[in-house]
Amino acid sequence: MSRIHILMYHRVGHFPQRMPSHRAQICHLPRFKAQMAMLRYCGYSVVSLDDAAAALRGKKTLPPKPVVLTFDDAYVDFLEQAAPVLQAHGYPATVYAVAGLLGKTSEWVTPEGLVPAPLMSAAQLREIHAMGFTVGSHTVSHPRLVQMDTPRIAEELTASKRMLEDVLGAPVDHFCYPYGSHDMRAVEAAAAAGYVTGTTCQRAVATPADDLLTLPRKAVSQGNTAFGVLWKLLTKNTSKQAALRRPVHA
Description:
Layout: E1 5-9, E2 11-13, E3 26-28, H1 29-41, E4 45-46, H2 49-56, E5 66-73, H3 76-89, E6 94-97, H4 122-130, E7 134-137, H5 150-168, E8 174-176, H6 184-193, E9 197-199, E10 218-219, H7 226-234
Parallel strand pairs: 1-5, 1-10, 2-3, 4-5, 5-6, 6-7, 8-9
Helix pairs in contact: 1-3, 1-7, 5-6
């Protein structure tokens, strides 16, 4: 049975040593480099989200100890800091972009008292796509979907897919729920929009028992060393909260 670890990153770069309010959203570049080296040293195989989805559907065999790397929000520092490290290792990754805020900043963090950070522009998304990285959708405006009415949920998912496909000139098959916020309406909207996968913030390893539109991930944050990430891969293989699943006939 395929068991696939999906790691969740946000920002990668150089940050003040103590940023407690940003802990879940940042990874220091030296630690990121060490984490990527650890994956290779410990025999993990970094695979694309496309290959992971195919394996979870029983249509592909993956190499041993597969890991998927995902990056939420499409910050500029992915291009400037993370991408060179990933390219040096030959690792694929998926970057989830907020379609309505390309070239702007992560303005959704302002109510939380955080400082918005630059997001990649359309040209920069095309650049990372040309490098071989996968671009997925993170809605149009980064809302908490469970707080929205059903038509707005559908619009956030379908419009963001269309907008990003126009930017890239390529299909956008993968979706990430902002804040991990989702309910059955959001999952059904993702299915209706034509996404192949949807990733959440549920902390578990992905298996064929999971709905592809509610895949779990393991977050990497400021305090995680390479050993800390290895510990996440060796433990926390089940989520305490039951994941949503669409009916089999869907």
